[in-house]
Specification:
Layout (H helix, E strand, L loop, with lengths): L3 H4 L12 H9 L2 E7 L3 H12 L4 E4 L15 E2 L4 H4 L3 H17 L5 E10 L6 H14 L9 E4 H7 L8 E11 L2 H13 L4 E3 L2 E9 L2 E9 L4 E12 L5 H7 L8 E12 L8 E5 L5 E7 L2 E5 L3 E2 L11 H14 L12 E10 L13 E5 L5 E5 L5 H20 L21 H15 L6 H11 L3 H10 L5 H16 L5 H8 L2 H4 L1 H19 L3 H19 L2
Parallel strand pairs: 1-2, 1-10, 2-7, 4-12, 10-18
Antiparallel strand pairs: 3-6, 4-6, 5-6, 8-9, 9-10, 11-14, 11-15, 11-16, 12-13, 13-14, 17-18
Helix pairs in contact: 3-8, 3-11, 12-13, 14-15, 15-18, 18-19
The protein binds flavin-adenine dinucleotide.
The site of flavin-adenine dinucleotide has 39 residues, from helix 3, strand 8 and strand 16.
Length: about 550
Amino acid sequence: MGSIESILPMNIKTFSNLNRQENSHEIRNNTYDLIVIGGGITGAGILLDAASRGLKTLLIEKGDYSSGTSSKSTKLIHGGLRYLKQFDFWLVKEVGTERAIVHKLAPHLVQPEKMLLPLVEKGSYGKWLTSIGLKIYDILADVEGEDQRQMLDKKQALEKEPLLPKKILKGAGYYAEYRTDDARLTLEVIKTALRYDAVAINYTEVLEFIYKDNLVKGVKVFDHLLKEEYKIDATHIINATGPWVDDIRHLNKSLQGDTLQLTKGVHLVFPHEKLPVTQSIYFDVPDGRMIFAIPRAKVTYVGTTDTLYNKNKEEVRTEVVDAIYLIEAVNHMFPKVNLTLEDVVSSWAGLRPLIQQEGKSPSELSRKDEIFISPSDLISIAGGKLTGYRKMAERAVDKVIDRIEKHKGDLLKNCYTDTITISGGPWENYNEVLQYIQKVFKNIEPLGFTQHDAWFLVTTYGKQVEKILKIYDSINEKDIYKRLIQAEFQFCTEYEMIATPSDFFIRRTGRLFFDIQSLKDHLDTILQAYKYHFKVSDSQVEKEKSKLLNAIKNSELH
Ligand code: FAD
């Protein structure tokens, strides 16, 4: 296996909240070409794009990275088949093409996932429309070879998925998509930007803008960890705060013209044996919508809903009514499974930051992104999708580059993020990822670990697993799973800027969603590790414990 230092970005040692004081000192004493507000996938993409083109760039996130929408999506890097129905060919072409690019840049995080689209009596897609639709999809996104769509008859569809409803099934479309971990993708994009001397800080909230000659030239922030307010200077500022974009525009006194319409989307998680689909399925709901059922290791998750949302953005919850809607939809398509509320082991709910369009229902609102520029030159970007983050970033950074070139006549680089391997690699191709999982398995099997453990480590951390296994070697603990999770926690503390056990269990490892039992089993071990590494008081440990117990209660729905 390769050297660790070549796998971890060069100045990543500063990407730790153990170095909070030094990081904060550095930020206060610098002037940035660009400040990006918001550490979701949109802000992360902009950070990488801007830094790699030569701009001195800082990203500021008020909570943990990806704590907004970017940890609560369906976790698909997909072409958006349903946008074809809205004749949104441009969007399908862009995100369809982007899928393949993001897969190439991070194949351990963006993995191929075949999708089955069952055709049923009175369903929203007929055989002919599906066949043509999927063909157009392939053409727009340049899909080649065995990834091109196939049409299956009823028998073939049932062979692929025996749980489908035999009585009303007419056949199925079968096509290629990609599955990801949105929170890790966001984080790894930020870590990639560190290679280009970008700086990022979490738990730091923008409170106000600083103006010079009526132009935004800095921000006043509050550091939630150090409990301090300070000012940061910058030449340009991008507002990439997803569902909070209008709040920041309001702060800038520039909330005019198009505004956001937030819609809530909920996902439910079931043990795989309760919903034992053999592969991902995109299926009809009786009300005319479509939802996904996606198997992922020990669980299958289902989503999503799409309802207008005007409540508290800081506390978005899965309500029982959302859960019942999804459970009824699943029971309708898979009559043999008979799911109930009691079967839900976890869930999550997120907000889509969409652009308001009069007279359109939530599902009809366009997923296109839009850029607003205020009279004081605040650049805000909203809308869009996880899948299209790279192109959104390019468009936003182009606006900054235009301004710089106009003033200085400098020639900065054009966007080239389509060639920048995302942290966790590099990989030749997806096959190398599969071989690497086997290699890691061979290394850890003698210690008592399983194939699933090797898969989890590589699809979560990529080649950085080597650093985790080195830390594992240095820990004195008999129980191999306690020892491994301590090593993961130490890695995330030293190299991934966690500040709390919640950051670790929810966003760095996805355990709250996909392996809630392991969270329960290891909660105390991690609280001890938290106390040890962060030197926090017992009362702080208790506070974090109750935060996590609350998160478990909310996601279990009972
Ligand atoms: P966010 O991720 O919300 O990031 C904005 C950040 O700004 C937040 O972290 C917030 O804390 C921070 N912030 C706010 N105010 C401040 C402040 N004052 N100071 C500092 N920071 C601040 N797309 C896909 O491509 N594939 C999918 O499968 C998919 N599924 C989806 C399913 C659902 C249910 C939803 C809701 C969306 C889905 N999307 C999907 C869309 C995608 O998830 C979003 O478009 C994307 O995550 C938005 O990212 P963002 O960075 O713009 O916003």
